[in-house]
Amino acid sequence: MTEKPRPLSKIAVSGPIPAHLARSVIEETLRAAILDGRLPSGTALRQQDLADLFGVSRMPVREALRQLEAQSLLHVVPHKGAVVAELIGYDAVETYGLRLLLELEALRLSIPLLDAEDIAQARGYIAQLESETDHAEIGRLNRLFHMSLYHRAPNQKLLRLIELELNEEERFLRFHLSSMGLGKLTQDDHNAMTDAAEAKDVERAVEVLRGHLEKAAQTIRNYLERSAES
């Protein structure tokens, strides 16, 4: 008899989890496993299985799954429960359309308020991205880089919305790098954006960011068109 696949066996949990940290630990652990491919799209995540794995009650598991659903990493299927979402779908193109609206505005608002420490932090993330080859870590660093240039925007709700959309970017980067057999992406756009931000050239920075996001959206469109034809 063929043994059923056990995707949760790929997740290591070290030691008991303090009750007050349970939700966040479960959320981050599952999030990382989804982004790095240990939990592929279509995987059903049953609350009791997760509670047993993490050694907790079902309550923090339920809360963690809700957070992951809000980040579009999971969706709920009738009679199946929480299921890992597709890595790339047509909504990814819509995500980039929304990112264009949100991030261009955040960058405009943030650049006049950025200081030397902010610029140094952005360049630090670029340096790490240049040498990093782990796809999940690249996604995380990319998110941190973008937020380092946006975070001075005074509109906190805008920044929270952008953080949610950047979760989609992490999934896209993993897909993009894996599908093209790449270990990393060029940092030309990130460097140009940071240079413009340091020079307080808002329009140049916005122009670079617009092109950066439009190129990513076009990559997804091309992939989806090829998939539809095959």
Automatic annotation (TrEMBL):
Residues 20-87 form the HTH gntR-type domain. The keyword DNA-binding applies. SMART domains: FCD (SM00895), HTH_GNTR (SM00345). This is GntR family transcriptional regulator. Keywords: DNA-binding, Transcription, Transcription regulation. It comes from the Bacteria. The keyword DNA-binding applies. It comes from Pseudomonas chlororaphis. GO terms for molecular function: DNA binding; DNA-binding transcription factor activity.
